Amino acid sequence: METSFGFRTVPVEEKQGLVNRVFDRVASRYDLMNDAMSGGLHRAWKDAMVAWLGAPRRPRTVYRVIDVAGGTGDVAFRVARGIEVRGAVTVADISPEMLAVGARRDARRLRPTTPCRFVAANAEALPLEDRSHDAYTIAFGIRNVARRDVALAEAHRVLRRGGRFLCLEFSRVDVPGLAALYDAYSFRAIPAMGRAIAGDAEPYRYLVESIRTFPNPGRFAAEIERAGFGAVKVRLLSGGVAAIHSAFKL
Ligand code: SAM
Question: 14, 127, 151, 209: most buried by Cβ count inside 10 Å?
Answer without folding.
Answer: 151
